[in-house]
Amino acid sequence: MFARPRILVVNDDHASLLALTSLLDLWAEELNYTVVSARSGHEALRQVLLHDFAVILLDVNMPDMNGFETAEAIQQHPRSAEIPIIFVTAYQADEVARLHAYQRGAADFLFTPVIPQIMRAKVSVFVTMAQKNEELRRQTAELGKHTEELVDINGRLTREMEERHAVERASHAKDEFLAMLGHELRNPLSAINSAASLLGMPALTAEIAQRARNIVQRQTRQLSTIVDDLLDLSRAMSGKVELARRPLDLSRLVGTCLATYRATGRADLHALQDKLTPVWVDGDPGRLEQVVSNLLENALKYTPPGGSVDVSVQQAGTDAVIVVKDTGIGIAADLLPRVFDIFMQASSALDRSQGGLGIGLSLVRRLVELHGGAIDVHSDGAGQGSTFTVRLPATAPLAASPSPEQSERLAAKPSVLLIDDNDDGREMMALTLGAKGYEVRQAGDGIRGIAEASANPPQVALIDIGLPGMDGYEVARRLRRDPAMRGIRLVALTGYGLVKDQNLALEAGFDLHLVKPVATDKLCGIIDGLAGRE
């Protein structure tokens, strides 16, 4: 919230000054401004050097420095040159006198005795203009800062791509990628820059301003997606991806991915079919979900509406096999050997109708290889669809018959504490987990959450980061400082999923960082795993 506009009243006569300021004070709260007074031209000059003013009410007849001389001095200083001045005078000036006044910086006149309604109307115009100008300045500054950050990201990415191009100059695919990256980044940057310029225009309507802000939000999300894809691939190619392996049923993981696509409507234009047979692997659930999601996204993107995508999971010898088959545009024979090459796309047409950077399959291959597996692709040619096959080392399933001690521990679902200020979201999650058999307690803010955890420590606490007053990071730090509550497993729930957000969560003491929304089955598996039930 920015500071209230100020009105400066300058008059050497104490009674007149008191009358004008008292009258202005009557409307100060309604019109949201502050009144400042000065008894001379010199004092007025000191005030304009210290503060910004929406308008100055300046008495013409003052000793030492009259109103015209004061106005001229105010106009000569860069800080105060644009402040509108209303001259207050007791006589009706002729046209020549008014011209002289306007040349000295006058915006208007008030004649004494002042009519309150007229003064209120004139003052309110300048106050409103000051409020609007300040709001637009702040919005423009914020958008300008964001644009600079995005331009800086663009510059860094462009430099990285140029360095790679110098090393791999012989690669024609790299040249195409650089051109494509420039296109994908400059389009949203251009839209953001235009919107920021538009918001700085003085005659902007509220409707156009809102449309400009919406454009900035949409294009920023697009840029974030591009940057996230690049960062993921960079980490995978440099070997900085660490797998959190555990035994898991691959068919359940793939089924969860398919359920998400169906629930969100992302496969509504296609026939999405599956045949899933239980088979176990030793893998990182998050990274394997990334593999499956990329293959599904690729199949849906290159399959026209009305086509079909078939997904199967089965065991073949010592391998767990995922097959994603589509009836899409297919792959030409000369492109098949290069499908998994970095920055490779089936088409580089200028219309860029499919969009994207063409790095998804390269990332899939790298993640599969990190799991000790392999991926291949088959297509009978253009228009004949494609089949992607992932092979991972199969492992023995977890023991189906736990010991009596394990059975007793597994029979009871862990206790869960939800700390979230969104009442509807918290209530729905509590009902869902309750229906799954968990003992769930709730808190709407960090203070109440800590009190609830202290009174009856849960096994797992799901904590929203954007809490009012005390954010989720501080809640985690306080829980970790209390020896009685250090055993609680803490899960951060947030809409931010960058590496820095994950690092902040871990530094604060969270065991795990999750990005909203989280599928119910996945969340239940995480809760059970943290509580030692899996």
UniProtKB/TrEMBL annotation:
Residues 6-127, 415-531 form the Response regulatory domain. The modification 4-aspartylphosphate is found at D59, D464. Gene3D superfamilies: 1.10.287.130, 3.40.50.2300, Histidine kinase-like ATPase, C-terminal domain. Its EC number is 2.7.13.3. Residues 180-396 form the Histidine kinase domain. PROSITE patterns: HIS_KIN, RESPONSE_REGULATORY. InterPro entries: CheY-like_superfamily, HATPase_C_sf, HATPase_dom, His_kinase_dom, HisK_dim/P_dom, HisK_dim/P_sf, Sig_transdc_His_kin-like_C, Sig_transdc_resp-reg_receiver. CDD domains: HisKA, REC, REC_2_DhkD-like. It comes from the Bacteria. SUPFAM superfamilies: ATPase domain of HSP90 chaperone/DNA topoisomerase II/histidine kinase, CheY-like, Homodimeric domain of signal transducing histidine kinase. This is histidine kinase. It comes from Massilia norwichensis. It catalyses: ATP + protein L-histidine = ADP + protein N-phospho-L-histidine. Keywords: Phosphoprotein. The keyword Transport does not apply.
